[in-house]
Amino acid sequence: QAQLVESGGGLVQAGGSLRLSCAASGGTFSTHNMAMGWFRQAPGKEREFVATINWSGSSTDYADSVKGRFTISRNNAKSTMYLQMDSLKPEDTAVYYCAASRGTYDSTAEYTYDYWGQGTQVTVSS
Question: What is the rounded distance in angstroms from the CA atom of residue 1 to the CA atom of residue 113?
Fold first, then answer.
């Protein structure tokens, strides 16, 4: 069964860094020709867009709140996407979800994504 699996979450102090990974698994499922993205959901809030990358990695987009601190990248040979998070703030605390779209263009809209991971918790202490 096609699925996405996130890893790399954890507890970190403000100002620290974490690197999230999102790997495709399940038979022949591959994300190499899919746009992908990261979203997050903080307690009591709706899920929000964080970052997106097109199928080749040549185009990316970020939420204003993470620009200059987070970097999205991918390795298509490994069907894996990454989110490097630097200068973390307590307000970055959330469950982070990765997603993949059958389309090839990067997208900030949740409805354009067809596959979702289960999420990984990121907690930033002050």
Answer: 17
**CA gap 115, 29 in Å, rounded:** 11
pLDDT tens profile 75-120: 999 999 999 999 999 999 999 999 999 988 889 999 999 999 999 9
- Closest listed residue to residue 120, CA positions, set 32, 45, 31, 20: 20
For residue 60, count other CB atoms closer than 10 A to its CB. 15
* Backbone phi and psi for residue 111, each to the nearest 5 degrees, phi listed first: -65, -15
| Other C-beta atoms lying within 10 Å of the C-beta of residue 94 | 22
The whole-number pLDDT of residue 30 equals 84
User: Closest Cα to residue 48, out of 97, 8, 116?
Assistant: 97
Q: pLDDT-based confidence at 31, cuts 50/70/90?
A: confident
Sign of the Cα torsion 99, 101, 104, 108 reads: negative
**Euclidean distance between CA atoms 92 and 90, whole angstroms:** 5
